[in-house]
Amino acid sequence: MIKHDILTENDLRFWLDNFYGRLLKDPVTAPKFTDLDLPSHMPKIVDFWAFVLLEKEGYKTNVFEKHIHLNLEKIHFEHWLKHFMETTDEFFEGPNAETAKHRVKLLATTFLHKLTGEYHMF
Predict the structure, then answer these.
(1) Per-residue exposure over 100-122, b if at least 16 CB sit within 10 Å of its own CB, e if not
(2) Confidence at 91, pLDDT banded by 50, 70, 90
(3) Which domains does the chain have, with CATH numbers?
(4) Smallest Cα–Cα separation from 84: which of 28, 15, 34, 35?
């Protein structure tokens, strides 16, 4: 398979479907999705990453507020990041793929600190 960069919303959907497929199989992260209707939520996730990577306007949701109720701990972020990096590296390469990996580390660091008070740079 020849890899290319994340350039379109179709790339985003493919990438995120594979990523969330991994999260749903992981015994640490899967329980956090029991109450989530992923098919209806996925367009919002795609919109977020389209805003971050493709400079698509329109995403205004506070992504942190949407995750407060999940009671996430450091281990959840570690597994989430592992799957994120592996999925990205398996299918894509290029500036947007690298930006995604950098941004997700910042998100994890910020979320963990806000949720637990713990500061850990991923």
Answers:
(1) beeebbebbbebbeebeeeeeeb
(2) very high
(3) 9-116 (1.10.490.10)
(4) 15
For tokens 């991923």, the residue is 122
Residue of 121, 100, 99 lying closest to 112 (CA atoms): 121
pLDDT value at residue 119: 84
Classify residue 65 as exposed, middle or buried by CB count within 10 Å of its CB (0-12, 13-18, 19+): exposed
Over the stretch 35-73, which tens digit does the pLDDT of each residue have? 888 899 899 999 999 999 999 987 777 777 776 777 888
Percent of the chain with pLDDT over 70: 99
The residue assigned the tokens 């329109």 is 58
User: How many alpha carbons lie under 13 Å from residue 118 in its C-beta half-sphere?
Assistant: 11
Question: CA neighbours within 13 Å on the CB side: how many for 22?
Answer: 16
What is the rounded CA–CA span in Å between residue 56 and residue 93? Answer: 20
